[in-house]
Write a sequence for this structure.
């Protein structure tokens, strides 16, 4: 198991049949909480076949969370990453990665870790889509700002662009949530091409990170203000 730095603790959160892995630093019960949502992880192998364990091999999102100096910071993994619950099935990290079951479990996990505090929601890659969906499906969450990093924001467009199979049991974002938002995209991202990001975000705030591919956001200077 990856070991967090500093004041972070590993805290599994049980929601709707899944045990969601989280790393938490909570030092001020009154302050907003920065919630980082992991990407799709190791969902497919080099041959395009579903893996038996979608736990991400890289640490980008965890590293971004660990160096966040806010009083309250929580990293939230996706279902079946780090912890293989009895409910886990490969559909939850393949064609159903944005299904109602996944989104509702993530929404419940975020509600538990936020505990009524205002939320700044940061989602990477497919985690950006999860963030957008849970904002729309759970308006009771006090999301003050939505931040996406290399975000997939419409999976139907995304799979069609690459000629991949549709994510047939997944929800999609027809319109982006009406909350303050900033979207960071890599100028050289080949996984989520800039043309798709520009289409999805439209007139929203986009920050293009020069010379950045899909995973090159280690030193990203994130604007958390709202």
């Amino acid at each position: 198991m990856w070991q967090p730095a500093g004041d972070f603790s590993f805290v599994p959160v049980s929601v709707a049949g899944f045990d969601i892995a989280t790393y938490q630093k909570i030092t001020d019960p009154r302050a907003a909480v920065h919630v980082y949502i992991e990407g799709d992880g190791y969902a497919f192998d080099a041959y395009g076949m579903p893996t038996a364990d979608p736990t991400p091999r890289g640490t980008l999102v965890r590293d971004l969370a660990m160096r966040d100096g806010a009083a309250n910071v929580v990293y939230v993994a996706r279902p079946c990453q780090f912890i293989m619950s009895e409910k886990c099935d490969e559909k939850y990290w393949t064609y159903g990665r944005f299904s109602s079951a996944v989104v509702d479990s993530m929404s419940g996990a975020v509600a538990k870790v936020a505990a009524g505090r205002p939320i700044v929601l940061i989602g990477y890659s497919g985690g950006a889509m999860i963030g957008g969906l849970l904002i729309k499906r759970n308006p009771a969450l006090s999301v003050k700002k939505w931040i996406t990093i290399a975000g997939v924001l419409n999976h139907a467009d995304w799979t069609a662009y690459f000629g991949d199979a549709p994510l047939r049991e997944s929800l999609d974002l027809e319109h982006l949530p009406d909350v303050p938002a900033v979207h960071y995209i890599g100028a050289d991202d080949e996984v989520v091409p800039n043309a798709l990001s520009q289409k999805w975000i439209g007139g929203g705030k986009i920050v293009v990170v020069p010379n950045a591919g899909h995973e090159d956001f280690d030193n990203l200077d994130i604007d958390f203000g709202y």
In short: The first helix runs from residue 60 to 66.
